[in-house]
């Protein structure tokens, strides 16, 4: 009876469970998110041409801010800073198209300056989320998420070919390693169960990395030179403010904040069998904004809830905040070890491409799932089709904005997400609904108001 009173069950939100029971469950979350957490940093480091030592610091910072963001969500500061829901935070793939664009056009300090302002925008969304969510129904949010997935495909394919600028770009051995990595990911995802299924991307990268190692594609020079412990100093990369970058980041943060509502809803519904409270929604979005602000100073990238970890919570019903908090502490500890970060930089581009193409495909399919929550009427089809056509079309048609001012090319010509978002929101507001759609919407509002 004493043990029952002393230790909580891992299926209970609050309380301290046994360490021996919590540790493997925490490691499961770490394994599921660690690759996805550091991959955006690795990709951005390649785009901006960082030296090996700077790449290590960027990866460390991504781990550190992910740990901080997770703890902030699990154990809120005050009433409106953190959700208190069992979620794991990490560097978001959704921002990669914009980060690649800004990184290649400007530099890291400009990205972090825009991220600081974006974090403030997320705080504002959290404070007024009820009003803003009316602008982002599933149709609009799904269109934006679908566009994000589509815009990431060239990044994955370039990495599968060896990485743009590599001497062996497009070589058969790069494609061999990439295809083998992808095949292993698919095998573990669809033909295994338990931790192997949940960590299918990690398993694919391990096998792909081993193959690349045998083929002489891996160098450990940077690992040998790295130390065992290092603390990333604030403002290591600096910070600059550039208006067009800020505007692009603002739009992305607003979209991402609204998208986070879906993950919080899934976590509360699947893990706790209830709807999330208004305080949890507001606190979750504000907490992510605060984490992004901290990340801008520490060199950490924009964070978001990790869907794979949401899936683990829903499947296992392990919602105890101490379990997920232990996972956050492990992630934090990894962020202080340069040896670990430097080891991650040795992963060949072809392995990254083979592993992440499936992730990017799932992002696009998630968008389609959101879109199909509403009937694909002629009106809704126009909203989705035109938004995606303009967003992706402008990016693929190089030089189509060549005679526009520089600020316009930066905001509208560098990321498909910006044009797609503006188009989807505008069309959704101005295109008239069919009579049956208006009646269904009115009935839905009536039911919501009791």
Automatic annotation (TrEMBL):
InterPro entries: NCS2, UacT-like, Xan_ur_permease. It is a multi-pass membrane protein. One of its GO terms (molecular function) is xanthine transmembrane transporter activity. The chain crosses the membrane at residues 26-50, 57-77, 83-103, 110-129, 135-153, 174-192, 198-220, 241-265, 318-337, 349-371, 383-404, 410-431. Keywords: Cell membrane, Membrane, Transmembrane, Transmembrane helix, Transport. It comes from the Bacteria. Pfam families: Xan_ur_permease. PANTHER family: PURINE PERMEASE C1399.01C-RELATED. Belongs to the nucleobase:cation symporter-2 (NCS2) (TC 2.A.40) family. This is Nucleobase:cation symporter-2, NCS2 family. It comes from Enterocloster lavalensis. The lineage of its organism: Bacteria, Bacillati, Bacillota, Clostridia, Lachnospirales.
């Amino acid at each position: 009876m004493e043990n029952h009173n002393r230790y909580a069950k891992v299926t209970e939100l609050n309380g301290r469970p046994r360490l021996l029971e919590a540790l493997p469950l925490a490691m499961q979350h770490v394994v599921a998110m660690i690759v996805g957490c550091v991959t955006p940093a690795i990709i951005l480091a390649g785009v901006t041409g960082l030296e090996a030592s700077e790449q290590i610091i960027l990866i460390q910072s991504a781990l550190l801010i992910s740990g901080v963001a997770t703890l902030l969500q699990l154990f809120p500061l005050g009433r409106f800073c953190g959700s208190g829901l069992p979620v794991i935070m990490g560097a978001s793939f959704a921002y990669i198209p914009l980060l690649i664009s800004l990184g290649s056009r400007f530099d890291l300090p400009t990205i972090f300056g825009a991220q600081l302002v974006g974090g403030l925008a997320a705080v504002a969304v959290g404070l007024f989320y009820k009003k803003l969510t009316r602008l982002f129904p599933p149709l609009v949010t799904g269109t934006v998420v679908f566009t994000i997935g589509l815009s990431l495909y060239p990044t994955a394919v370039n990495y599968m070919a060896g990485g743009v600028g590599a001497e062996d770009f497009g070589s058969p051995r790069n494609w061999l390693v990439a295809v083998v990595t992808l095949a292993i990911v698919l095998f573990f995802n669809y033909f295994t169960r338990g931790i192997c299924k949940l960590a299918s991307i990690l398993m694919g990268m391990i096998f792909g990395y081993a193959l690349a190692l045998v083929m002489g594609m891996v160098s450990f020079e940077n690992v040998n030179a790295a130390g065992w412990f290092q603390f990333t100093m604030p403002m290591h990369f600096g910070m600059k403010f550039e208006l067009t970058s800020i505007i692009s980041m603002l739009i992305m943060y607003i979209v991402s904040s609204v998208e986070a509502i879906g993950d919080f809803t899934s976590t509360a519904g699947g893990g706790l069998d209830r709807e999330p409270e208004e305080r949890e929604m507001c606190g979750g979005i504000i907490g992510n904004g605060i984490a992004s602000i901290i990340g801008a100073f520490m060199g950490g990238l924009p964070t978001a809830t990790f869907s794979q970890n949401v899936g683990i919570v829903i499947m296992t019903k392990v919602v105890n905040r101490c379990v997920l908090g232990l996972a956050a502490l492990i992630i934090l500890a990894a962020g202080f070890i340069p040896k670990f970060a430097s080891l991650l930089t040795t992963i060949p581009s072809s392995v990254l491409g083979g592993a992440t193409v499936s992730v990017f495909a799932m992002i696009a399919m998630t968008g389609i799932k959101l879109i199909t929550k509403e009937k694909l009427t002629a009106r809704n089809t126009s909203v989705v089709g035109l938004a995606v056509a303009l967003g992706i079309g402008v990016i693929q048609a190089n030089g189509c904005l060549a005679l526009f001012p520089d600020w316009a090319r930066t905001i509208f010509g560098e990321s498909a997400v910006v044009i797609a978002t503006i188009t989807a929101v505008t069309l959704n507001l101005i295109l008239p609904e069919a009579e049956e759609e208006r009646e269904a919407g009115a009935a839905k509002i009536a039911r919501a108001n009791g």
